[in-house]
Specification:
The structure is a homodimer.
Chain A: H1 18-27, H2 34-46, H3 52-59, H4 68-80, E1 84-89, E2 92-98, E3 105-109, E4 115-118, H5 124-134, E5 137-148, H6 154-163
Parallel strand pairs in A: 3-5
Antiparallel strand pairs in A: 1-2, 3-4
The first copy, chain A, binds a DNA duplex through residues 2, 30-36, 51-53, 65-70, 72-73, 94.
Chain lengths: 164, 164
Amino acid sequence: MKIENHFQFESNQTPLDPAGMLAALLEAGYSNTGARRAVLAAICQTGGQASPADLLAVGRQFHPRLGQVTVYRTLEILQALGLVRKLHSDAGCHAYAPATHDHGHHIICQGCQRAMEFEGCDIAAVVTSVEAQTGFQVQSHWLEMFGLCPGLRIADCHLSFARR
Amino acid sequence: MKIENHFQFESNQTPLDPAGMLAALLEAGYSNTGARRAVLAAICQTGGQASPADLLAVGRQFHPRLGQVTVYRTLEILQALGLVRKLHSDAGCHAYAPATHDHGHHIICQGCQRAMEFEGCDIAAVVTSVEAQTGFQVQSHWLEMFGLCPGLRIADCHLSFARR
DNA sequence: ATTACTGCAAAAAGTTTGCAGCTAC
DNA sequence: GTAGCTGCAAACTTTTTGCAGTAAT
C-alpha cells in the first residue's frame, strides 16, 4: 500500500476532469486500470455529495465488475493525492467531491447537491477576531458553504457546473 | 419520539454546564433521569471531541448502567435542542461538543482536543466574494477552526477551559 | 396509573482486512 | 514474468430498531 501525502500539484491548476485526474494518478506511479477510470468518471459525473455506495453504482456504468472495496481504496489514494476531498454536512460525512486547489473550499448546492470549489477564502479578519476572543492560536480551518447554484433548477445547475 | 427543532434559547445565553443543560431539557418537556444527567455530565466533562463510545465510558462513571443506545438517543435530543453540536474533522465526524450559541462555531485545540465555541463569525466579506466568484447564492455555512488553546499544554488547556 | 425512558439483543449500515486470481507494465 | 490491482468473502465498527422491563411524573 503506497498512499503518501505528496501533493503532486502545488499550483492552483489541477484537473476537474477524469482525464486530468487519471494523468495525476499515473504521474504518482499508480496503474491505469479500468476500475480506477470508472471511479474517476463517477466522481466527476456526480460532482460532489456522492457516497462510496453512490460512486459504486455510477462507476459500474463504466466498469460493471467494479467492487465497493476498490471504490474505497481509490478514494483513499485520490484523497492522499489531493484530487478529491471529503465533504461534511449535517446530512452526513460520506460525500466526496473533486478537489482542484490545495487550499480549496466547497460550496454545495442545496438544490442539486453538486459541490463546487471556490478559491481564496480570505478569512484573515475572522481569524484575528477569533484569536482575540478565545485566546487560541489558529492554525487551520474548515469552511463549507451551502446555497443555490446559478441555475437554481437542477438541469441548469448541472449545466452551469459542466460549463465551467 | 419527540425531538423537534425548536430552539428554546434564542438568546446567546445558553448553558455550558450540566445543570443548565438539564434545565433546558426539562423546560422542553423531557424527564429528569439518571441516564440523561450522566450523558450531560460526560459531555461537559469531555468538552468536545468525544465520540458516542467515549461518552458512554465517561457517562458510566456517573450512571454505571448507562447503555450506548441511550447515549445516541440523548445526543439526538440535545442536538435538536441546540445544546450540543457535532464536530467534523479529517479524523472523523463522531465528536460532540456543548453548544452555547445559536450561530456558534467551534475552535478545537490540537493539543488537548477540547472544543470551545466562538461567537460572531463575520464572514460577510467572504460570502460576497464567494458569491461573485461562483454565482451561487449563499444560504449558510459551516466553519470550524483548529489551533492551540491559550495554555498550549494540556493541563493549562483544561484549566483555561474550565475557568471560562 | 400512566406515560416516557432505558438497556439488552438483534439488525442494519458502513468500512476494513485477507486472500487468491487477474491485469498492467 | 513480476509487481501491483481487483473483487469476493468475511470480519469489524458504528448506528438504528424492536421490545419488554423500569423509572419518572
